[in-house]
Amino acid sequence: MKLLLCLGNIGEKYSKTRHNAGFMFADNLANKLSADFSIENKFKSAIAKTTYNNEAIWIVKPLTYMNLSGEALFALKSYYKIDIKDLFVVYDDISLDLGIIRIKSKGSDGGHNGIKSIIRYAQTQDFNRLKIGIGPQPPYMKSEDYVLQNFSKEEQEVLSNTLIKSVDAFLYYCDCGDLVKVQNKYN
User: Fold this and answer.
1) Closest residue by Cα to residue 132 from 103, 170, 152
2) CB–CB of 22/132 below 8 Å?
3) Which of 55, 123, 130, 161 is most buried, judging by how many CB atoms fall within 10 Å of its CB?
4) Which residues does the annotation mark as catalytic?
5) CATH of the domain at 171
6) Phi, psi (5° rounding) for residue 59?
7) Contact criterion met (CB below 8 Å) for 101 and 131
8) pLDDT tens, residue by residue, 143-154
9) Cα–Cα distance for residue pair 88/179, rounded to 1 Å
10) pTM of the model
11) How buried is 120 (Cβ within 10 angstroms: 0-12 exposed, 13-18 middle, 19+ buried)?
């Protein structure tokens, strides 16, 4: 089983913002795998359950807002006894330029409040991540304001291609099971 925790903020107001790259990824992957989301209040999440290569894939969008994403992970992990090695977190990264993705097996929170929450509830930094670049942030703008901006029309095209590449990278990971191979091909 793979638990894919995709970070973002709920509500139409945030749906097209930079901070919702994780939710956008979730929607793209669910669409590709013909999976539908359903609200599961017990887990504070919208979850699309599907299979790929005979393995269960749960695509999860926490409904807690970004800064409390760990609460959804905690609820799922506690109830289903999910092993942290089966967790894959997808989120936006302001330090990466738009169009760039990075796949990692561990790391710090990098100042990302959603990841801070995940680390707090997972009680480890050692979990797989797929980071989607949303930068560069203009020097005159606060990061809180920048991440809540919508993508421009030109940026949406780059983002669309990046989301396709990100979905392909995750599915390649499911195919080969080797994170280093995935990193070599997509990072």
Assistant:
1) 103
2) yes
3) 130
4) 19
5) 3.40.50.1470
6) -100, 115
7) yes
8) 999 999 999 999
9) 11
10) 0.96
11) middle
